[in-house]
Amino acid sequence: MYRQTEQRSNGGSWILALLVVAVGLLVGDRIWRLWSTRPVPVEDPTAQPRPVTPRGDLAEDEKTTIAIFKAAKDSVVNISSIALRRDRFSFDILKIPAGSGTGFVWDEQGRIVTNYHVVKGAGAVEVTLSDHSQWNATHVAFDEDKDLAVLWTDAPKERLKPLPLGRSSELQVGQKVFAIGNPFGLDHTLTTGIVSALGREMESISGRTIKGVIQTDAAINPGNSGGPLLDSSGRLIGVNTAIVSPSGSSAGIGFAIPVDEVNRVVPRLIRKQAVARPSLGITPVPDSIARQRGVQGVIILNIEPGGPAAKAGLLPTRRDQFGRIRWGDVIIAVDGTEVQSWNDLDSLLEENYRVGQEIVVTILRAGQQLDVRLKLAAEPR
């Protein structure tokens, strides 16, 4: 019985093998016939380029984009940060590239504007104009709270083309914007987009908050920092500063410092005028601790002797005779404008008041609300 089954099995296997071979021969024959009958390429010595089909006129938005780039490109510069190192053998000073970014011509006196973080910590800074001429920055003035810097160069007037200025206060969400910069070292790269949002907040490298920031979806990548953001009239409306991206490349969320802020800070830097920030003369309890206690406002931790708060009689946090903490006055408003945190208070004073100005501070003391008048002083440096 076993032998019969084995014989039948062997017979079936042979039949299957013959069928596979037969099918393979048929398929192979078919492929060969198709291959052997295909057209053989023949060289044509008379071959010529195909005629070009004329195109119509450019669309109006294309013409606008081209015109904006042509008008602005000569105003955009490349910024190279140089680290200075001493050779251990020859003791010569070596220049080592430390980073790059973008800037733009501010005026015909050779002054260039960029982000402070582009040149921060640089031993030397080189500016490359659109004509590829290179100039050393002879002086740098900066405001790290606003992440802006002004570079002085000796570039001659005839090589400089300042950008026209617009107003960021007039911007509307949805209007077109144009960014020019040097992303990844690719100079004079143009990207386009729209104003995605207005009034954003961004933390500067000093930790202070920059308010009124422009959000855009125009592609901004490493190297674009410090470059101009333009409106459809080719006017400067912002300075490209940061992106939000897990990968470090453009993800459609970029931020620009509004030109109204730039036009306030830059002249002050050019005048080499120290930024005198108004101060109450207090040190606050950290907001996190205030929140833990359920306080919406600024708890005063310490008061500067002789400062505005001290002269007005405000009370700091202290300990009583038994060692218990007695929390200081809580600032809840300035001139009727509510403040809920130290950042609120700091930004409100910086953006709306000046040193020497009188204000009315509303405080909570032992559950009672009081209005106290004081005169702002300059923040100590």
Give a structural overview:
The protein is an alpha+beta fold and about 375 residues long. It has 3 domains: about 75-160, Thrombin, subunit H (Beta Barrel), CATH 2.40.10.10; about 170-270, Thrombin, subunit H (Beta Barrel); about 280-380, PDZ domain (Pdz3 Domain), CATH 2.30.42.10. It is built from 7 helices and 23 strands. The protein has helices at about 1-35, 60-70, 115-120, 260-270, 285-290, 310, 340-350; strands spanning about 75-85, 95-105, 110-115, 125-130, 135, 140-145, 150, 175-180, 190-205, 210-215, 230, 235-245, 255-260, 280, 280-285, 300-305, 320, 325, 330-335, 335-340, 360-365, 370-375, 375-380. The strands form 5 sheets. It has a 7-stranded antiparallel β-sheet. It has a 6-stranded antiparallel barrel with strand order 8-9-10-13-12-11. The longest helix has about 35 residues, at about 1-35. It is elongated and about 105 Å long.
